[in-house]
Write a structure and sequence with these properties.
Elements lengths: L12 E6 L3 H12 L4 E5 L6 H6 L1 H19 L14 H25 L3 E4 L1 E6 L2 E6 L14 E14 L3 E3 L11 E2 L1 H5 L7 E5 L3 H13 L2 E5 L11 H11 L3 E5 L2 E8 L4 E7 L10 E3 L1 E4 L3 E3 L32 E3 L10 H20 L2 H4 L10 E3 L4 E6 L2 H6 L4 E7 L4 H5 L6 E7 L10 E8 L2 H13 L4 H5 L10 H11 L11
Parallel strand pairs: 1-2, 1-6, 2-3, 6-17, 8-15, 9-10, 9-15, 10-11
Antiparallel strand pairs: 4-5, 5-6, 7-16, 12-13, 13-14, 18-19, 19-22, 20-21, 21-22
Bound molecules: flavin-adenine dinucleotide.
Flavin-adenine dinucleotide binds next to helix 1, strand 2, helix 2, helix 3 and strand 4.
């Protein structure tokens, strides 16, 4: 049985946050803004967690470069030609590092302005009100290795705690320990540009990084156990992505497993097997780089949660209620460690809720203390080229859940802006509740977009869902012309049966 101590008489802080990722720093900053004394413990030298250091930001920095390279090549069809791009990897790495540094030093400055005390070290619970922090400041300031710990642990007493310890990349035991086998962090380091690259796992992270390497000159293969790539995205969107991206790949192996891999002088030799008896797969292939992108696992088993009495699932997740409370009421958890979707914007919102709940309780403010995570939807974006973005129900999910929906679809081939951009490989699809007996009859339940900048536009659909908008609301909202965002209004008009930018509906 864990020792559960009462509130410490002399706590070092009102709130201790474990982990300075988007969830942790957002919670710490919001709590400090609400007047709490906050300590933020982080094992790495910089704040920002996976997202800022080895996730969202460096990947999007490199994807921007990749998309400009691709875009420039499209200009050939418009009569403008450049030669092949000359890529200086050192400069590219240093550009990526500068972007990351600007953001992470900005966070450190904002922590100081808010008087949030940042403690560098690896945190483990001692009991439900004390944490032991082992110093990690002597290890290299890099996110590529787990930091080394040294010296006797420092004990910190807290009144409330938020666990925001995030997640780590899953590593496949069958892959050899070799510099040519990388995870997302290793791929973002841009060690070299492989001639042939295998992406193990056809999800968003793998395909985003594949897009980067392809733009830099690599030929790609991808292997995925399921029957399609980016399985949670709408199939019509993935089909359009596939058409534009087929040229990057030698093999797209779905319903296929990686069963063996060995390091040879020529590369990593990988053997495949079909998921279904009777299907065929290519003979073993040799790659210059193998990227393992098979998902992320929560860090719940690395913080001694049991000593605080906090329940951690077998897979390492920490279960929470809508106020982000664990089974121990004064210990809350947020972000990747609490479950899917593992996305930065979900972590941030959860962090704000958790901070409000604690501040409300400590200040005796019932309204603040009753904060809860009640978002109807959380948008997802694959920053591939073209981008795929979706929010709420997709058609497959609606079908699986037996929800009757009406579609409004606008192909970007009819968009003046998409054509002007030379990028009419896009589609906007809205789904409206089509069950007359439903309370939300007529309201938008989901939306998906594929096309350049789709990720920048999906927020409008998230807002529409949160506001309970229907096709009339969206179709009668004036969108500026000519923009890609117009496709949203036009898809709503299509659902109403009167989009004047599409052929008339056959009566
Ligand atoms: C390549 C890649 C690209 C991504 N792109 C996107 C994207 O475009 N959009 C998006 O929304 N999401 C993206 N993600 C996911 C996103 O990075 C995560 O969802 C997000 O970082 C989760 O935030 P978090 O605060 O829960 O945890 P994390 O960011 O994982 O932060 C947790 C922090 O806790 C620290 N920590 C852990 N244990 C301890 C301990 N015991 N003591 C002290 N410190 C500890 C860790 O060092 C880390 O800094 C991407 C991820 C990857 C890998």
């Amino acid at each position: 049985m864990p020792t559960i101590l009462n509130h410490p008489t002399h706590p070092d802080c009102d709130l201790l946050v474990i982990g300075a990722g988007p969830g942790g720093y957002s919670a710490a900053f919001r709590a400090a803004d609400l007047g709490l004394k906050v300590i933020l413990v982080e094992r790495y030298a910089t704040l920002g967690g996976v997202c800022l250091n080895v996730g969202c930001i460096p990947s999007k920095t490199l994807l921007h470069v990749a998309s400009v390279i691709d875009e420039v090549s499209h200009l050939a069809a418009m009569g403008v030609q450049w030669g092949a791009p000359a890529v200086n990897l050192d400069s590219l790495r240093s550009h990526r590092d500068k972007v990351v540094k600007r953001l992470t030093t900005g966070l450190a400055a904002m922590a100081k302005m808010r008087k949030v005390t940042v403690v560098r070290g690896h945190a483990r619970f001692v009991d439900a009100h004390h944490l032991a922090v082992t110093d990690t400041s002597t290890s290299a300031p890099t996110h590529t290795h787990t930091p080394t710990q040294g010296g006797p642990p420092k004990t910190i007493a807290f009144r409330h705690c938020i666990i925001a310890a995030g997640s780590s990349a899953v590593h496949l035991p069958m892959l050899p320990d070799d510099v040519r086998v990388v995870d997302s962090t290793g791929a973002l380091a841009l060690p070299f540009v492989p001639r042939r690259m295998l992406i193990v796992g056809g999800g968003i992270i793998g395909l985003e990084l594949g897009t980067v390497y392809s733009a830099l000159g690599s030929r790609l293969d991808v292997v995925e156990m399921l029957d399609g790539l980016m399985p949670s995205a709408d199939r019509d969107m993935v089909q359009i992505w596939h058409k534009t991206n087929a040229h990057r790949f030698d093999h797209i192996l779905t319903q296929t497993r990686t069963v063996a891999a060995r390091a040879t002088q020529d590369g990593i030799e990988v053997t495949f097997a079909p998921m279904r008896d009777g299907d065929t797969v290519p003979a073993p292939q040799t790659y210059d780089m193998v990227l393992q992108a098979v998902g992320r696992t929560p860090n719940g088993r690395q913080i001694g949660a049991d000593r605080a009495g906090v329940f951690v699932t077998d897979r390492g997740f920490i279960q929470v209620d809508t106020q982000m409370r664990t089974n121990v009421a004064h210990i809350l958890a947020i972000g990747d460690i609490t479950g899917q979707p593992m996305l930065a914007h979900k972590a941030v919102h959860e962090g704000h809720v958790a901070a409000s709940v604690i501040a409300g309780e400590l200040h005796g403010l019932p309204k603040l203390a009753s904060a809860a995570f009640d978002a109807r939807v959380i948008p997802s974006v694959a920053y591939t080229n073209p981008e795929i973005a979706w929010v709420g129900l997709t058609e497959d999910v609606a079908k699986a859940q037996g929800v009757k929906v009406k579609r409004g679809v606008f192909p970007w081939a009819a968009s003046g802006r998409a054509m002007s951009n030379g990028r009419d490989d896009g589609l906007t699809k809205l789904l409206f509740d089509d069950d007359p007996a439903s309370k939300s009859h007529g309201q938008i339940l989901g939306g998906s977009m594929v096309g350049i900048h789709a990720g920048d536009m999906i927020g409008e659909l998230a807002l529409a869902i949160e506001m309970g908008a229907d096709a009339w609301d969206i179709g009668h909202t004036i969108h500026p012309h000519p923009t890609l965002g117009e496709s949203i209004g036009m898809a709503a008009e299509a659902a109403l049966g009167h989009c004047t930018d599409l052929p008339p509906v056959r009566k």
